[in-house]
Amino acid sequence: MTILEKMPAEASQTCSATVRFSDGVERAFPVRNGQTILAAAKENDVRLVHQCLTGSCGTCVTRVESGEVRMNTARGTSLLPSEAAEGFRLTCTSFCDSDAVMHFDYPSSLLDEPGPERCTAVVGEASWVASNVVRLCLRLPDDAGLEFRSGQYVRVRVPGTEEWRSYSMASTMGDLPELVLLLRVLDAGVMSDYLRSRVKVGDEMELEGPFGLFYLRDSKAQQIMIAGGTGLAPMLGMLEDIRLKSGRKPKVLLSFGCASEDNLFYQDELETRAAWLPGLKVKVAVANPGPGYTGLVGNPVEVIGAADLVDPPSAVAYLCGPPPMIESARRHLEALGLDPENIHAEHFSASAA
C-alpha cells in the first residue's frame, strides 16, 4: 500500500466494484476516481455495515478477492499490517484503482436487522474485579430497543463530557434490561478517571449500539477463543449463546491471559462456565507472574499447542485483545493449520484522550 496521493490523469475512469456477502448475495456498483468504496455504495443504495467513517473502528472491513483496491494510509486505521497483507481493506478509506471484487464476512440479511439505537442507561453497579478492571452494570430503559449479537459492542458517552468510548458487551440479549461491560482502567483517561473517582449508582450514561461484525458464527466445528485482558468480555456472551443453543454443542477452547496475577479476573466465573458446558476447555495464563504462582506462564496465544486443536482446518477462531496479540494469534493459528477465513478478530487500543 502507498500513501494516498493525487491520482494520475489516466486513472480518472470509473471502476466497477462487486461486493459478495457470505449468503451468496452479490451487488455491483460504479466507483468514481477519488470516491471511497463506502461512499459509492451509499450513493448506489448498496448497504454495507459501517460505523465511524474514519477507519478507526474496523467495522467496514472487507477482503479483496480480485482487482486493485488502495487504502489511504495517510490516515491511521485499525487495520493490522498482517490483515492488509492478506487483502483486507476498510471501505471507508479505500479506493478502486481497477474493477474489483470484494467479500464481506456477513450475510446480506444482517443489514435487515435493527440498526443502532441510542438510549440513556443508568449505572446499577460498578465493582472492581481486578486491579485494573471495573465491571459496569447498566440498566437500560424498557423501551430501549437494543438488539444485538453476542460479541458486538456499544459506544458509551463518559458522563460529564462529550467523549465516547467503545466496549464489547459481556452479557447477552437474555440479560436485558441489564447490560454488563468490562472496562480496563488506565493510569489516565476520561473514562478511567470517571471510574476511579466519580462513578456512582444512579449515574446516567448515554449509550449507542450495537456495532461490529465480531459475533458467533453458526458452526459445529471447534470454537477457539483467545482473549487478552478485557477482551474476555465478548467471549462470555458467545459462551452463553453456545450453552443455550439446542442440539450438539461444539468443543470450545478458551485461552485467557493477563500481564500479571493482579490483572486476572473472572476465574471463578470461568470455572462455573466450564461446569455448565462440558465441551469447554479453559486455559488461563499470566505473562509476568510473581513468586509462588503455579499456573500457566505466557500469553494466551503461546499456551495453545497442536494438542489443543481437534481439526484445525475446520476450526473457527475468535480473537479479542490489543493489536500485537491479534497479530501474534493470527500467525500462530495459521501455523497450526487454521484457515485464515475462519479467524475473526476484534482488536482494541487504549484511548487516553
UniProtKB/TrEMBL annotation:
A GO MF label: oxidoreductase activity
Keywords from the named record: 2Fe-2S, Iron, Iron-sulfur, Metal-binding
CDD domains reported for this sequence: fer2
Residue ranges of domain 2Fe-2S ferredoxin-type in the record: 17-108
Taxonomy, superkingdom: Bacteria
Pfam families membership: FAD_binding_6, Fer2, NAD_binding_1
Transmembrane feature ranges: none
Cofactor: [2Fe-2S] cluster; FAD
Stretches assigned to the FAD-binding FR-type domain: 116-217
PROSITE patterns hit by this protein: 2FE2S_FER_1, 2FE2S_FER_2, FAD_FR
InterPro entries, alphabetized: 2Fe-2S_ferredoxin-like_sf (IPR036010), 2Fe-2S_ferredoxin-type (IPR001041), 2Fe2S_fd_BS (IPR006058), Beta-grasp_dom_sf (IPR012675), Cbr1-like_FAD-bd_dom (IPR008333), FAD-bd_FR_type (IPR017927), Flavoprot_Pyr_Nucl_cyt_Rdtase (IPR001709), FNR_nucleotide-bd (IPR039261)
Protein name: 2Fe-2S iron-sulfur cluster binding domain-containing protein
Species assigned in the record: Zoogloea dura
